[in-house]
Amino acid sequence: MKLIEVRSYEELSRVAADCIIDRVKSNPAIKLGLATGGTPVGTYRNLILDHEANGTAYRQATTFNLDEYVGLDPSNPGSYRYFMQERLFHWIDIPAGQTHVPSGVCSDPERECEAYEDLIRKAGGIDLQLLGIGGNGHIGFNEPGTSFHSLTHLVELDPSTREANARFFSSREEVPTHAITMGIRTIMDSREILLLVSGEGKRQALKQLLNGPVTEEFPASILQRHPHVTVIADSAALGRQRRKPLRESVV
Ligand SMILES: O=P(O)(O)OC[C@H]1O[C@](O)(CO)[C@@H](O)[C@@H]1O
């Protein structure tokens, strides 16, 4: 894995956006895997600023989001479809039909999962997958114990994940109990992965990701086996201050 150490969340967001912009420019019909949560918000802000200032085009791009809460329709502000509309899709020139988020309100979740896998496969797979990491090592909504062979599936959320995501809802009880998520294998099949880690709260998870064993008890650890992963981590997550702006190393 390549590790890029940055000083701050702002720098992390700029570096991540620059990487995405670079890939979009060299492959305008790119298939992008996208993430939600607090971490990628600054990255999306930078993509929008760049689109406005430099006209980077997303007309030919296709996106696949990692996950969606079960029971929340796209008009619900807690849903990930709503999040993506507000934070990115509305502000760039990507056609709505080329943005994909699993449906949280389908009548048959199992079929929805299979259909989502099919969509990704028919698109030719994901070129670049953006990821955040949960404090317990989850990627997407793949909680500890998830099989490394899993494809898109229905999950019951860990209480710690519901607790961590309660900040996006008006009360803890409103956080859905289930979600549809790309599986670990779906994520690992991406040709390139960009993982963002920010803040003191992620320090332990980052340490385990970089130095721990590969185990299903810590889902993100499988990324050590992917041939093309870049981790961008800020000082707070690394637990050390950086005076110089950027440092790249192979870990
Ligand atoms: O960026 P955050 O809000 O810390 O979340 C980390 C991860 O947790 C999730 O929000 C799921 O709980 C992922 O979508 C995200 O990648």
From TrEMBL:
Which major enzyme category is it?
Answer: hydrolase
Protein EC: 3.5.99.6
Its annotated pathway reads:
Amino-sugar metabolism; N-acetylneuraminate degradation; D-fructose 6-phosphate from N-acetylneuraminate: step 5/5
Instruction: Give me the Gene Ontology terms describing cellular component.
Output: cytoplasm
InterPro entries attached here? Glc/Gal-6P_isomerase, Glucosamine6P_isomerase, Glucosamine6P_isomerase_CS, NagB/RpiA_transferase-like
Which superkingdom does the taxonomy of this entry point to?
A: Bacteria
Domain Glucosamine/galactosamine-6-phosphate isomerase per the UniProt entry, residue ranges: 11-226
SUPFAM superfamilies linked: NagB/RpiA/CoA transferase-like
This chain belongs to the protein called Glucosamine-6-phosphate deaminase
Source organism of the structure: Ectobacillus ponti
Gene name? nagB
